[in-house]
UniProtKB/TrEMBL annotation:
The gene is Sfxn4. One of its GO terms (molecular function) is monoatomic ion transmembrane transporter activity. This is SFXN4 protein. It holds the Pfam family SFXNs. The keyword Transmembrane helix applies. GO terms for biological process: amino acid transport; mitochondrial transmembrane transport. GO terms for cellular component: mitochondrial inner membrane.
Length: 223
């Protein structure tokens, strides 16, 4: 996150964004819901191919602001602020959510296990899988989008107020701010939705409801 945020060249930005999304995609693969099974194809191969495509696409999208800056010299200070400082944050948030949705797409297709209050598996639900993936993608978007956006705002205020007199000290200050925001946002993003998610009876498929009278069901959301 730190290295990606300080890049000024599109090629370098693409490389570090690729590294960043590779790490987050691997994290998503390891910490997703393990329910989906398929006999028609290798699930691991499908997830790896989807992950590689998502990583490449996200790295290209993340480098677009710098490509635009390098290709077209923008003299307007407002445009420079938007393209260089403000645009990367929502892009990183959106691409982080996109990689989660792509890598965990088998949970959309095949569903995940839902349980009753006692932990007994009632069935496999695609709607629960969709809910789990969307919640995880949203929490990931908030985590990295905020971690990119908030330090830029804070550093802008620091520079305007002239809190740091020595220009050479801005780099370490920026690194400290990014690390502080990231450390603070980690527990916030993890606590946005419970690890053991809950889904109402009315939101499940009829074939699951026919086998039980329970009104509340639970599932493993993943991280």
């Amino acid at each position: 996150v730190i290295i990606s945020s300080v890049q000024r060249h599109a090629r370098h930005s693409f490389f570090w964004q690729f590294v960043f999304h590779t790490y987050t995609t691997a994290f998503t693969l390891v910490n997703g819901n393990g329910t989906p099974k398929s006999e028609e194809y290798s699930l691991q191969q499908k997830q790896l191919l989807l992950g590689l495509g998502a990583i490449s696409y996200s790295a290209c999208v993340g480098a677009l602001p710098l490509v635009f800056m390098n290709r077209y010299t923008l003299k307007n200070s407002l445009m420079q602020l938007v393209v260089r400082k403000l645009l990367p944050a929502p892009l990183l948030g959106l691409t982080s959510a996109f990689t989660v949705a792509m890598v965990r797409s088998p949970e959309f297709d095949n569903g995940i296990e839902v349980m009753d209050r006692n932990g007994k598996v009632i069935g496999v639900s695609k709607k629960a899988g969709e809910k789990a993936v969307m919640e995880t993608a949203l929490s990931r978007a908030v985590l990295f989008g905020t971690t990119f956006f908030l330090p830029e705002v804070l550093m802008y205020c620091v520079q305007r107020a002239r809190f740091v007199k020595n220009p050479r000290a801005l780099g370490p200050v920026r690194m400290f701010v990014i690390m502080s925001v990231l450390a603070g946002m980690l527990p916030v993003s993890f606590s946005m939705f419970p690890q053991c998610g809950e889904i109402k009876r009315a939101d499940l498929e009829p074939e699951i409801l026919s086998s039980t009278e329970e009104t509340e069901f639970f599932y493993n959301r993943g991280i």
